[in-house]
Structure formats: C-alpha cells, structure tokens
Amino acid sequence: MRNLILITILSLLSSIFAAELGPKLQEALEGDAQSFDVVIELKEKLNGKKIRRAVRRALRGNNNIREEVINRLRKRSERAQRSLRALISKLTNNEARYLWAVNSISLELSRDAITELAAHPKVESIELNIVQQFLEPEEVNQVKFKRRSGKRELTVPGARRAGKNRRNKRNKRNRRNRRNRNNNNNENVSGLAVNEAVPGFDSFNTYGLEVTQSDDVNNILGITGKGVIVAVLDTGIQSNHSEFANPAKDKDGNNISRFVTGASFVPGEADPEQDGNNHGTHCAGTVAGATAGVAIDAQLMAVKVLGANGSGSGIGIIQGIQFAVANGADVISMSLGTNGDTPGVNGIEQAANNAVASGAVLVAAAGNSGPTERTVGNPGSSPIVISVGAHDSRGDLANFSSRGPNADNQDIPTLMAPGVGVRSAIANGGFAFFSGTSMATPHVAGIAALMLEVLKPALADGTFQLPEGETQTSFLKGIFTKPENVFGVAQRNATGAGAINAFTSVSELVTLLTPPEPEPEPEPEPQAADFTQEKLINDFIPVLQEVYGNNIRFFRFFLNAPVEINEEERTATMRLGVQRFVVVNGRFVRRQANLTLNFTLEHSNPEAPVEEAVFNWVLDDQGRQALENTRNL
C-alpha cells in the first residue's frame, strides 16, 4: 500500500514538473535522429516593462536607463538559469546559447539529455529551434511622375485614356491577374497589373520619400538621422554598395563611419556586411541610402539573422535583437515575420517587447498574407512594437498587406507606409523595385531615426522626460498615429491609423521640444502721482536749465493754460510762455514767445526691477528745437 502511494506521489510530481515538449520536437523524436537543436524555455518570464519601471524609479526618472535595464535582464536570467546551466554542463559539452532577452537556452541535446532537462522544475517547454522565413518580394516595372498645381499625380506608361471597351477589357484582365497572384500568396502590386505598377515619383522613382515627406524633413528642417544607429535585422547588408559610400554623421554633424560593428547569427554566413539575397540591402537602402534613404545620415548596423535563402532560426533572430540592443542600436528594423500569429507572447515577440522596454524603437513588418484577416506575423503582431502595413503611391492599402487583429484580438497593424514598387539598392551594386511590408518597414524605421535625431539629445541632457509609463517606441507611436500626422483612410486591423507622414510628425516633435519663450517681465505701470502737472514741471525744469544754461536768469517762464495730460496715451501738452527783457535804446523791452510743447511719459530705467521703475515726462525733439529758438529773443 505504501509503495502504491509513493508511486502515485512520484507520478504526480513528475506530471507537475515535466516540461511540455513542443509538437515539432515530438515529431522529430519519433525519427531516428539522436541529437536535436532545441530551445529550452524557462517558466520564469522576464518582464522588461516592470524592470524598466523599477529602473526609472531607482534612477528618479533618469532617461539614460538602457544599460541598467539590460543589466537587470541579464542578472535575472542568470539567476533563473543557474541550476539549469550546472545540469547542462554535466549532460553535454555542446556550446549553449544563454538568452537574457527571453530567459531561454538553446543548444544541441541528446534524447537522454532532453528527457532529463524536461523534468527540471524550472523548465516550461522544450521545442526545436524553429526556422524563420520571410516572403519574397516581387520586382515591378518603372513609371514616371510629374507635379501639377502643387499636387502629386502619377503618369503610368501605357495607361493613357483609352476607349471604353479597351479600358473595360484591361480592368477585367487586371482583376483576373490580381486574383491569380493573391491565390498564390505572393507579394504583389495591389490594384494594378504588373505592367502598370506604380513604383515612384521622381527621377530616381523614390516615391516613398515624397509621399511620406521625408525629403522635406531632410531639405527644409535639416534633419537627416544624425547621431542615430539603425539595426537592420535581415539577410545582411552589402556595405560596399554605392548607396552606402557616403559617411554618416554624428549628432554634431561630423563625418563618421556609415556602418557600426554588426554580427551574423546564420551558420555558414559569418559576414553581416555581405548579402546573398538582396532583401537586407534593399531594406537598408530605404533606411539610409544616399538616393533612396529616408535618414541619409544615420549609421547602419548589419545584423544577419536570415541566410541567403531567406531562412533563419528563431533563436538567431532573438540573438540578433539582443545584439542590437546591447550594442546601442536606437532603432531596430525587422522586415521579417512568422506566418501568422499564435496566442500569448512567444520568444521572438518577448525579445522584441524587452528591446522596447530597454529603450530601442522596434519597427516590424505586418506581413504579406492579406487581404485575409488575422494574418499579421510575429513580431509585427505585438501591440508593443510599431507594426507596419503597406500602401501604394496613392496611399491605398496594398491588397497583400496582412490584416489584424492578432491572435489575442488586439488591433494590428499600427499604421502603413510605402510598400508597393519601392526602388532601393540590391547586392550586385544595382537597384530594383520590390513590393511588400518588408519595404514599408524601413520607411518607418528611417522616420523613427529622424525623430530620434531630435529626441535623443533632449533625453540625454534631461531637458525632456518621457511621460510616465512611456517607452521611446510608444512615445513615437503616439505621435505617428495622430490624425494630423497621417493621411488616407484609418481602418482598424487594416490600414491602422493611416499612412505615416514624416514631416508633420517631426515638426510636432520639434515644436514639443523647443523651449518656450521666457515669460516677459511684467511691464511697470506709472502711478497716479506721475500724471500730475507738478510732476511734469519738475521733469521739465532740467531741460530748461540745459537749453538756456547761465542765461536762464534773463528769462521768465509761465503757463498760458493748465497742462493737458492724457493718462491712457501717456502724453501731455504744455502751452508755455517764454519772456525775456532786453535793453533797447536805454529802455527795457519785453519779448515773448508762446510755445506748444508735447511730452511723453517714459520708463527711464528699463533694466531695473519692476518695483524700482521710474517714469519721467520727456519733451519731444520738435519742442526742444522750439525752446532753443527762443534763446535769441
């Protein structure tokens, strides 16, 4: 009986402590393989939001909290993983990847090791290291743009006005082509046949710069992303492309290296500044390219998390996020995502959320599985990041752009940006037109860099504090999504707030951070005693002494009428009689002049404090000249 009870208790404990084995791992375990690349997820979750709040309280609102948030995430993960790390070191000599952004461990394990670790009380689940894939963009043809009456209009080759029958046939063909492409779930040019794609406006066909008014931010406001680092998590960046030949600039406008040190988390592709796919280079060109870039003076961090074939492990992506955060990336641009969303917060989303909590601005693609609802991929499905859908050059939502809500019924995406027929750099040194939310995302990442050129210094020197509970991502999101900072239709789970406008967003931030003009000192006010005839005469006597000098004793002055004083205008009029007695032929002769003199009551010591203000009646120049003329009476 005792043995039965003991067995029952052990069975219960085993069921309590046994970790869940993911479906992909279970499937793999049914095969003949003896070792498996797995992710061990711990039960204890690292809540970057709570850590950030605690750090801000500890540092009394100091904005420079990134390093401390990262340190606390590291320490908590190390403490939570301590016993597991000790066990792993006994079970295998394989190198383990200890992750602090998600409190997970990834390494290759044998069957027996998986079984033993699954029984550890701190382990929640063990799953295969899942591959991440993005959808290939589609090249499109070039079109021209011209301006009329200050409005942007498109001229599409071959799309001039035609007869009604011809136009109806073309529209019917276009609808059929769109249906075919949508059924294949490829990225495409929504609403247009391929030969009518709309990739751009100006001679470089970089319509995205004009639609978002990023070019106006550069040219009118002089804001170009100086002093900001943008990490592009992708297939790498071909750094020797001519688009990246110009130096970047620091916050003071000095030339600095275009690229900061990056990293690769793709086995067999060690150089992050090589791109075997084009996707990463194209995205980076939109962020900071010389001709296609939104933030032309921003620095780039190449973080390779996807290989030349467009695939990469989920752990590699998390490592990429960690690297970007730990190495000072201000903006993290992620033109990648899972195929759809799952309830709750998975590893990539948790890493993204904790990156946001640390102070990075994270921008992620919504995905290219529209127009079906609930197709936004992860991490773009997170309400914490800035999730980006795609629109065309007219501001219309692209048909392929994924729709929300996410698996937790939260509204997604945040907004949309140019993502149809976007021209940018590719790895062979040339340029190409791609479509997809992958192309929309770096537009927003670049605009975030423009915003941070303004915001970073204000946060660093303490002249501006983020509102309580805000991150830099949520703060920028709040500005981006205001009705006055977007155009087009706002629609939940489709266009989000609408199409982003860089110029109005940056202008609002500049206004917000511009110190208000100091309140002027209150103007001193004259007292009742200043508006008396006696006061005016007392102020006038020194003028008489100055004009007549020692000869004043030969003159007599009198009022022909009471002084007229206008208190509202602070003016006065004096009718003055001036007499002089002279000897003519042995006789005294009286000579007289009658003058009308005008005075103004003026503040005589404006530099003095208000309480020490002194007002005097001042004779105008015309009156002084009239006095001087009487000296020869």
From TrEMBL:
Q: Which UniProt keywords apply?
A: Hydrolase, Protease, Serine protease
Molecular function via GO: serine-type endopeptidase activity
Where does the record place a coiled coil? none
Q: Which parts of the sequence are annotated with region: Disordered?
A: 146-192
Protein's UniProt keywords contain Lipid biosynthesis: no
Query: Which residues are responsible for catalysis?
Result: D234, H279, S438
Spans of biased composition, class Basic residues?
A: 161-181
The entry assigns this protein to a family as follows: Belongs to the peptidase S8 family.
Q: Spell out the protein name for this chain.
A: Subtilisin E
Q: Which organism is it from?
A: Uabimicrobium amorphum
